[in-house]
Inverse folding.
């Protein structure tokens, strides 16, 4: 089966004030469709950098990134934005919802960027919120929600757009352990029921019990991989 | 995106309100200025043409002719009859201006004796508008109405006699007149050197059956916007004008005054540009601060798939909505003020009298064209777009990863 995401000999070095800091040193990774993959490692191991490169948010210093058979690292910023819009979903540690919009408007936001008509985007957003058991909060403002609820809205925003893959950068880091476990359960269910591919980073070992595949990253290198049955 | 832009505009409520209020003030002020300019232009136009006519027939290059007799239209009555036949609805009158020396018992002054047709449009205008005492000259009576300032200078009053000397002319050259009335003319210079008499008397004194000019008043021509009628009439009358004479519009006959009217347009445009630039600086500040406060949010939107053009569009939309809100309020306030001014207004204090010297009527009526209203709102839209360009360009260049790490 063709990999949905592939990284080939990926290097990323940050330069600041003449100082070079390597973040990734030759990462090779493939993710098959429908996988529920965790990238684990301590802070500074390069997890976020790897997710940013895989999601087309940044360009590697060298190496290649492929998404659904299309090389994306050599594309222009405008082209990569278009690829992200139509193929990639993101969930962030800090939720990163748009505070002036309601829950429903946030969930429909990517569809609005895609130019979907209001009726269609709102019905799809409602369905996505229902998957995350957030439909009763559709008209609420974000400041009326808890952190866990906001993160569920963020997952619903990604889900509503039906992306090829969802990258989640430490999605539970701002949540207490119970809420974090619950969020991972939601994501896992979506992975099972909708065969939605998830790649997420974490340094919380308790969450790793829920995943199929764990990629251990340290000092910018993959040091081990394990598949959990 | 319009909905998001609208919500973003009102996030910094007090800042946005201040900016929108400034835009509203500029839009309202510009509408009022255009209305005032229209009132002034129409007032000047009416005042100027009320005594000078809309069209005038005179000797070619009359302004350059120094000799009195070379500046005369001969057989003026016949030409007037011909013109009246072609344009029966218009008021057409012959006017004879005679340079003369006018003397009272003690003093004398160089004056222009203005011979007007008794019962005609001009005599009526002067009588209705400017007669301060006595009555207009009339009939075969050798009488004259003097500018009040001239009468004071000659130390004469109504009922007394003055003596006119017009040497080198073709008529009697000298005559005594009874002062029938006093004229309070709007221009003090004109008031100090004008005496009005009937055309017949002026012709007998200086130039039988001749006129300095034949003036044509077109009925219903009240505003500059109706001026296109002049050209049509001019083309219609042109074949009737004998060789050696010319038919001029009021603008050509009084180029300095016409130029003064035209000057109002660029002046208003300069004011508009100045005001909108000032408002634009405020808009730039508001849009820029709004961008700086939301860099992280822009990073999220870019991450989700918005390209730089869409981000730029969002910033410009916000600016358009901010300025648009102000412009709508300003439009309403300006519209109300214009409606009030269109019922008639006068300048405060002594300003009305001072400006009357330049031909402005004391009561004016605001007038604005749809094109001018469109121009004000186009200026507002242009301000919104140009003010947002720099912040939009900055927003469009944000790198998503860097922007999401930004801490305000």
């Amino acid at each position: 089966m063709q990999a949905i995401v592939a990284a080939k000999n990926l290097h990323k070095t940050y330069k600041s004030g003449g100082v070079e800091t390597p973040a990734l040193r030759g990462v090779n990774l493939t993710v098959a469709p429908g996988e529920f993959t965790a990238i684990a490692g301590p802070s500074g191991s390069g997890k976020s950098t790897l997710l940013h490169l895989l999601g087309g948010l940044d360009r590697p210093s060298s190496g290649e990134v492929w998404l659904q058979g299309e090389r994306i690292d050599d594309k222009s910023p405008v082209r990569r934005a278009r690829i992200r819009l139509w193929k990639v979903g993101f969930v962030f540690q800090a939720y990163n919802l748009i505070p002036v919009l309601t829950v429903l408007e946030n969930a429909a936001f990517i569809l609005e960027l895609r130019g979907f008509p209001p009726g269609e985007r709102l019905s799809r957003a409602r369905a996505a919120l229902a998957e995350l058991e957030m439909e009763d909060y559709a008209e609420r403002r974000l400041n009326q929600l808890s952190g866990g609820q906001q993160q569920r809205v963020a997952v619903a925003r990604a889900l509503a757009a039906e992306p090829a893959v969802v990258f989640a950068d430490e999605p539970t880091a701002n949540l207490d352990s119970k809420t974090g476990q619950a969020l991972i359960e939601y994501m896992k269910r979506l992975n099972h029921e909708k065969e939605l591919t998830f790649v997420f980073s974490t340094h919380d070992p308790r969450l790793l019990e829920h995943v199929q595949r764990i990629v251990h990253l340290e000092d910018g290198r993959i040091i081990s991989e394990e598949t959990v049955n | 995106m319009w909905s998001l832009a609208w919500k973003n505009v009102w996030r910094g409520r007090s800042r946005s309100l201040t900016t929108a209020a400034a835009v509203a003030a500029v839009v309202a002020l510009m509408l009022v200025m255009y209305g005032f300019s229209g009132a002034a232009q129409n007032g000047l136009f009416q005042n100027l043409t009320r005594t000078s006519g809309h069209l005038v027939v005179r000797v070619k290059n009359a302004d350059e002719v120094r000799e009195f007799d070379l500046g005369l239209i001969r057989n003026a009555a016949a030409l007037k009859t011909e013109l009246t036949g072609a344009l029966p609805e218009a008021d057409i009158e012959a006017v004879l201006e005679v340079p003369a020396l006018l003397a009272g018992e003690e003093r004398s002054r160089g004056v222009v004796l203005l011979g007007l047709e008794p019962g005609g449009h001009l005599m009526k205008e002067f009588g209705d508008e400017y007669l301060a005492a006595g009555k207009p000259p009339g009939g075969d009576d050798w009488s004259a109405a003097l500018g009040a300032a001239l009468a004071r200078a000659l130390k004469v009053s109504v009922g007394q006699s003055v003596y006119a000397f017009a040497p080198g002319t073709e008529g009697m050259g000298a005559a005594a007149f009874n002062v029938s009335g006093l004229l309070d003319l709007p221009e003090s210079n004109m008031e100090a050197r004008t005496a009005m008499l009937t055309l017949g008397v002026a012709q007998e004194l200086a130039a039988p059956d001749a006129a300095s000019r034949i003036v044509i008043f077109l009925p219903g021509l009240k505003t500059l916007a109706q001026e296109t009628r002049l050209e049509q009439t001019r083309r219609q009358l042109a074949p009737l004008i004998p060789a050696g004479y010319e038919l001029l519009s009021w603008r050509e006959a009084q180029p300095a005054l016409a130029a003064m009217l035209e000057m109002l347009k660029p002046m208003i445009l300069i004011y508009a540009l100045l005001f909108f630039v000032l408002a634009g600086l405020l808009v730039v500040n508001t849009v820029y601060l709004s961008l700086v406060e939301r860099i992280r949010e822009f990073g999220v939107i870019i991450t989700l798939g918005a390209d730089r053009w869409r981000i730029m569009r969002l910033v410009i939309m916000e600016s358009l909505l901010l300025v648009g809100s102000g412009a709508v309020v300003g439009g309403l306030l300006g519209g109300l003020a214009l409606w009030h001014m269109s019922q008639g207004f006068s300048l405060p204090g002594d300003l009305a009298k001072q400006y009357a010297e330049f031909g402005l009527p004391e009561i004016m009526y605001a007038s604005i064209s749809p094109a001018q209203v469109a121009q004000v709102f186009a200026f507002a839209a242009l301000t919104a777009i140009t003010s947002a360009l720099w912040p939009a360009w900055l927003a469009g260049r944000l790198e998503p990863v860097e922007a999401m790490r930004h801490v305000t």
